[in-house]
Amino acid sequence: MGSYYSADIHGPFETHDLGDFQLENGAKIRNLSIAYATFGTLNADRSNAVLFPSWYSGTTKILEQAYVGAGRALDPAKYFIILVNQIGNGLSSSPSNTPPPFGAGRFPQVSIGDDVRAQYRLITEKFGIERLALVLGGSMGAQETWEWAVRFPDAVARAAPIAGLARETAHNQLFLDTIIEAITSDPAFEEGWYGEGAVHRGLRRHARLFAASGFTQNLFNRAGWSELGFTTTDDFVTGFVENHFLPQDPNNLLLLARKWRAGDISKHTKGDLAAAFKRIKAITHVIAIDEDVFFPLEDIAAAQALAPGSALRRVSSQWGHLALFGVDAGYTAAVDGFLNELLATRT
Amino acid sequence: MGSYYSADIHGPFETHDLGDFQLENGAKIRNLSIAYATFGTLNADRSNAVLFPSWYSGTTKILEQAYVGAGRALDPAKYFIILVNQIGNGLSSSPSNTPPPFGAGRFPQVSIGDDVRAQYRLITEKFGIERLALVLGGSMGAQETWEWAVRFPDAVARAAPIAGLARETAHNQLFLDTIIEAITSDPAFEEGWYGEGAVHRGLRRHARLFAASGFTQNLFNRAGWSELGFTTTDDFVTGFVENHFLPQDPNNLLLLARKWRAGDISKHTKGDLAAAFKRIKAITHVIAIDEDVFFPLEDIAAAQALAPGSALRRVSSQWGHLALFGVDAGYTAAVDGFLNELLATRT
Predict the structure, then answer these.
(1) Which of A217, A254, B69, B262 is found 20 to 30 A from A8 (Cα to Cα)?
(2) What is the mean pLDDT of chain A?
């Protein structure tokens, strides 16, 4: 697995070692390493830092490619942008890069809260940052953004959760059950102790389930994938979606999917979701993709309505949830506009 | 398999033997038997017959329960109602009831057109009916309804395709690939030569994929299934969806899914879909379920717009596509209203 989860493919990154790290479920990660990449320069009063956690099955590389650059909302000339890899994504400590006996099928389950606590230590210990100008993230990154705003309200000036929820819905959990089972049901999975490349059937099944709900029906029915040079449904699903998932480590994906499934900010308030949202002090702009099947507009809007003083921003894309990848110029322009507007607010 | 596909469970039915039946793909079914159930009495001029084919994984029993009865649009006091089982559904000739060597994994693939040709022989040979007052069907039954109206335009006075398409979309085919693979990937499937009950993992996986898209997100997120007495997402998916699919024969389901996937009335007109619709002479009321994920309103409306002189009728249900099962009183009342309106038209 080493060849895929490398700087050759995912770009140069730094690591911050947190030593032994106690997880919320009582387990412990030995020598937790958080991988991150930064762009721009932290200013003297440390007030221009942006934190952007990765999402399901992605690393900081896709965040850089799709969201960071000169002239973009996240412009390294203005901001110190910290892209951070979730625990379990293959660059930070993960089942795939942890030696026996605690790697592979024995790597402990991690929560959204564990990630955010580790990221908090990164920004305070490594950079001395007390307050982030912006925390943003898409999908599972949005879950982490919500968690940041609720758990560390004084450390988040602005928040932009994109296409993700603060508490998972029952339907989203049912979907996640199907993609988890797609991998674990492969006889080659062997409870997580498989040979390299052995779980290809499970990974391809997982990829196709992801494709069937991750985009819109229109993308398929009107062959919208032809914009990227694909020729048939199968060519697109193989060349885009299977290509993304096949080189990844099955245990890593399962850890992330289970982390996603359990996301719930109301853990902070004994299940009272409204009370959890009330803790937020950040100026929060909640971004929804109208056609998103994983995180429907209706659910995003319901969350936004509970977040004090927040605003809802909507973007439409035939790419659905996976517009996050930056494949739709209209999405990219709209989200940059939303982020520019948010970053211009006074806190 | 015999115990599930029986009159004990699916009610009394008759069979019509068509002898050796040539399929569109060149293969042949020996002694094709079409199972059907009738309600009401054929009038003297044979003008009150209604034909209603079954849908995916269903038999004529659910059609009777959900759509036929005194005071309903399909009232046996007024109409001679012929409910007919699709080839491959376990009551008509199917992989599960065909003896070796042509049963199980060797049963030939059947098309929507094959079904409709066999049904045409049933109504003409058995009942001497030349023109049906109404052909209707839901989902795959809607595919057969469209096929009837295009293939035998003079034999269909009125048509009501409900929640189904005349030509499958690319996205629907991608979804069907996932539910087909859910069964065939079970190592116990053995290319269709499995022991009774052996493919339970594949069937349960298939059931869960069906559940995740067959209903609406709201049904899960607002626990709409509690109306039926279920207690949790898992309780509902197990008790309602797995309960439906687990006793069924995997080869039967695969035959039906592949038939569904290939549905395309434009086969009659060398791929020209608009030309195929122009053949229709029936008064056609096209019924869509607004929340349907399998057959989105947008796609149903696009088909309806191509059918000359047709009308679109819409119904909303939190049950989504599977409102077809008759679990939603609002759906049932609305559809009865649409059918009463259609049956009252003069032809």
Answers:
(1) A254
(2) 97
Determine the straight-line distance between the first and last CA of chain A, rounded to whole angstroms.
Answer: 44
Both structure tokens of B195: 């022991």
Coil/strand/helix, residue B58: coil
Verify whether the Cβ–Cβ distance A174 to B205 is below 8 Å.
no
**A220 neighbourhood in chain B, CB within 8 Å:** 169-171, 174
- Same fold yes or no, A7-169+263-343 and A172-257: no
Which residue in B249, B292, B299, B328 is the catalytic one?
A: B292
Q: Do you find a cis peptide bond into B101, omega within 30 degrees of 0?
A: yes
Instruction: Tell me which of A292, A299, A310, A317 is the catalytic residue.
Output: A292
- Distance (Å, whole) CA B139 – CA A186: 31
Closest CB from A170, A219, A233 relative to B221: A170
Give the pLDDT confidence of A286-330 residue by residue, as tens digits. Answer: 999 999 999 999 999 999 999 998 999 999 999 999 999 999 999
pTM: 0.95
* ipTM of this predicted structure: 0.92
Q: Which fold has domain A7-169+263-343?
A: Rossmann fold (3.40.50)
| Average pLDDT of the residues in B197-215 | 97
Element (H, E) at B23: none
Domain B172-257 listed as CATH 3.10.105.10: no
Whole-angstrom distance, CA of residue B158 vs CA of residue B149 = 8
Q: Which amino acid is at B84?
A: V
Closest Cα of chain A to B276: distance in Å?
A: 19
B110 has a pLDDT exceeding 50: yes
C-alpha distance from B22 to closest chain A C-alpha (Å): 31
What residues does each domain of chain B span? 7-169+263-343, 172-257
Q: How many CB atoms are located within 10 Å of the residue A26 CB?
A: 7
Q: Do A296 and B217 touch (CB under 8 A)?
A: yes
Residue spans of alpha helices (H) in chain A = 7-10, 60-67, 112-121, 140-151, 170-184, 200-214, 217-221, 233-236, 243-245, 250-261, 273-278, 297-306, 329-343
pLDDT band at A3 (very low <50, low <70, confident <90, very high): confident
